[in-house]
Specification:
Blueprint (H helix, E strand, L loop, with lengths): L4 E4 L3 H12 L8 E4 L3 H11 L2 E3 L2 H5 L4 E4 L6 H8 L8 E4 L6 H8 L4 E5 L9 E7 L5 H12 L2 E5 L5 H9 L1 H18 L4 H22 L3 H7 L6 H11 L2 H19 L2
Parallel strand pairs: 1-2, 1-4, 2-3, 4-5, 5-6, 7-8
Antiparallel strand pairs: 6-7
Helix pairs in contact: 7-12, 8-9
C-alpha cells in the first residue's frame, strides 16, 4: 500500500529517507511533498527526487497520511508550532529528530499518534539501521506503519524510548565511525605502497564482507576474530597494537559521547 507522505524539513537525513523510499517503491514521487525554508534547496529537491515541494508546512501536511519530521532538533519547536492544530488523530507523525522525545512532540500535536525513529544515512541505499518507539497515542497499527517504512530501506528494531539516545550514539551516528575507519584503512594501504583506488576498494570490501560474515554465521565477532588470529601471525601482531592503543575503548567512548549529546539535544 502506498501512502501520502509529507516531509517537514527535508534536510540531509529527510532526503536520504525519501530517496530510499522512492528507490524501494514505497511511494511514487507525486505522493510525497517535502518542505525546506531555503527556496534553492526546495527546487533542488524537486529536481533531484521529482517530489512535490513547498515552503509551507501547513500546506504540506494537509493531505498527508504520514508526516515525517526531518527538522534539526535545535529548530523542531518552531516547526511543531506550525503544525499545531493542523495534524489530527487520523494522521501519523514520525519524528527522526535526535534527542526529541515523543512527549515533547505530543505537547504540540495533542491526540495525533507519534512514533519516534532513529535511522542512519545508509537508508539511502536500502541498508539502513533504524530503531523505533511508540508515543502515548500510538497503536500497534501505527507502529507497524513506521516499521514498514523503515524496513523498506533497511532493518528495524523496536526499543523502549529510554534507549533511543543510545541508539543515536551507536547506529544513528554509526556510519561516521565506519567512514572514519574506511578512510584510515585506505590511508594505511597507501602508506604501505598500494595505489589509493586499490586500497580504498580493498578496505570497503573487507568491511562489507566482514559484517556480512557476522550476520550470516551467527557467531560472535570475538569468535570470528579468534578464528583468523593465528599464533605468531599478522593478525595477532595487529591486534596487539589495537589493544595497546585502546582502540575498543576509543569507540566505546565515542558512542557514549554521542549518546550524551543526543540526550542534551532533548533538554
Amino acid at each position: 500500500m502506498k501512502h501520502r507522505l509529507a516531509v517537514v524539513g527535508c534536510g540531509n537525513m529527510g532526503r536520504a529517507v525519501v530517496r530510499g523510499l522512492l528507490r524501494e517503491g514505497w511511494a511514487e514521487p507525486q505522493q510525497i511533498i517535502a518542505t525546506n525554508p531555503n527556496p534553492e534547496k526546495t527546487q533542488a529537491l524537486a529536481a533531484e527526487l521529482g517530489v512535490d515541494v513547498s515552503n509551507d508546512n501547513s500546506r504540506a501536511v494537509r493531505e498527508a497520511e504520514v508526516v515525517l519530521l526531518g527538522v534539526k532538533p535545535q529548530i523542531i519547536k518552531s516547526a511543531l508550532k506550525d503544525l499545531r492544530g493542523r495534524v489530527g488523530p487520523d494522521q501519523l507523525v514520525l519524528s527522526i529528530a535526535a534527542g526529541i522525545s515523543t512527549r515533547f512532540i505530543e505537547y504540540y500535536t495533542e491526540s495525533t499518534p507519534v512514533v519516534r525513529a532513529m535511522p542512519n544515512l545508509s537508508v539511502t541505499v536500502g541498508m539502513g539501521a533504524t530503531a523505533v518507539c511508540p508515543g502515548t497515542h500510538c497503536t500497534p497499527d501505527h507502529l507497524q506503519v513506521a516499521t514498514d517504512i523503515f524496513e523498506s530501506v533497511g532493518t528495524v528494531e523496536r526499543v523502549s524510548e529510554r534507549l533511543m539516545d543510545a541508539v543515536t550514539g551507536l547506529s544513528g551516528t554509526g556510519p561516521m565511525y565506519v567512514f572514519h575507519v574506511l578512510e584510515a584503512l585506505g590511508d594505511a594501504g597507501v602508506k604501505m605502497g598500494l595505489p589509493r583506488d586499490v586500497a580504498t576498494r580493498l578496505a570497503m570490501q573487507t568491511v562489507r564482507g566482514s559484517a556480512r560474515l557476522v550476520q550470516e554465521s551467527g557467531e560472535h565477532p570475538a569468535e570470528l576474530r579468534d578464528s583468523v588470529t593465528s599464533p605468531g601471525g599478522t593478525a595477532i601482531t595487529a591486534l596487539h597494537v589495537l589493544r595497546k592503543e585502546a582502540f575498543s575503548a576509543i569507540l566505546m567512548d565515542a558512542v557514549e559521547a554521542a549518546t550524551r549529546r543526543s540526550a542534551e539535544l532533548g533538554e
